[in-house]
Amino acid sequence: MQFQVYQLSPLFTTLISVSKKPQLLAVHVAAQYGQTAFLNHVVAKYQADFDVPDNEGRSPLHWAAYKGFADTIRLLLFRDAWQGRQDKEGCTPLHWAAIRGNVEACTVLVHAGMKQELVAKDNAGFTPVQLASDKGHRHVALFLSNAQRTHSNNNCVNKLCHGKMADIGYAPILFCIIIILMVLFINSVLAAPNLTKVTAVVGLWGWTAVSLAIVSLIMFYKCSSKDPGYVKRQGDVSSHKDTEDLLLNIDLDSSPIWTGNWSQLCPTCKIIRPVRSKHCPTCKRCVEQFDHHCPWISNCVGKRNKRDFFVFLCLGTLTSLLAAAVGIQRIWTEIPVLPAEETWIHHVVVRHPGGVAFLLVDIIILLAATILTVSQATQIARNITTNEFANAIRYGYLRGPDGRFHNPYNHGCQKNCADFLIRGYTDDDEIAWPPLQQVAR
Ligand SMILES: [Zn+2]
User: Fold this and answer.
1) Known catalytic residue: 294?
2) What average pLDDT score do residues 152-163 get?
3) 369 to each of 213, 312, 318, 362, 364, how far by Cα in Å?
4) Domains along the chain?
């Protein structure tokens, strides 16, 4: 590994040997060129000051942010570089990242930072948001203003409504919708006084739908309350597997066991996380095999609750399909021979408003649940998470030697599905923990 570092940057090793204050120059140049491994090496081996400002008052973090090297930013933040430092122009690293419009650099800085950096003004009185929109970086400006809004909601008088709402998510709303639908189904479809008495077959299907809805509610509670696979942080009570403890103990200074997958550093949780995990800004934790944060269950979907989430989706689809079929059958068979001036739609809406309201909401839920179930099922069959699917370009481990997309976790449809159904997740340790496998040998 050390050999690799030297081979990578002969220029920098020369810089170290010729300069009187080598680390001061080297850290800035390393940050400017995104030489993360080298930067880590000079900090670990020569105790170089990685937070020292240059003549313009810019630290290596300013340079990495300006050049958009997200991994270098991660390393510097991981090592506690000062995010709030303003250079002679009054710019923080976030100002520079916003000027260049680099989304990933801004994301890393914002997730690891605080509100002060978002509202900090440079000497001309501009905040990062204003600079991003002035330069025409619409995505970055939108992201930054959303982050600013989230922070102010958490702080201002709105805390009681907006702040809390963001924390709780929409789970209580979804819970109420399911309960209301169940009541409507029983009252206005199954036992409606103005409909004919249910036949044995329809009754059986109807009550099956009600039972499935109750099981769905149990699964809903399970996947929203379960730990989605939070990665342990330093100081957390030891309860997980040894491999995770080993990873926590890896020191960035002992480079021989560190192969330099810098995207694994979480500057917020201060951990080296497993490859497929991601930091969730809503839960403020890193989640193993992170799929997505689902506001409707108010929880992340990850390694430990993905199967529950998938079962919940399947049950949701099945229940709403069955209930819709029973509802349509009940109302349709009731429609009598109508006088010419009355349409069947008018008749149904006037006679069975509860049943119609139920069917409308139920069909919307059926469509949403079907789309989600199908997309999750295809991803499970390919053993890829929603996050990886959406951001494949960002992840080096999802690229083959030829630079094209290659998923190393795809063990074939049959094994992917079998692993998921039996264990709830696929065992990626051999691929996800390469440094540890080497140490063990
Ligand atoms: Zn994290």
Assistant:
1) yes
2) 53
3) 13, 9, 9, 10, 9
4) 2-155 (1.25.40.20), 168-441 (no CATH)
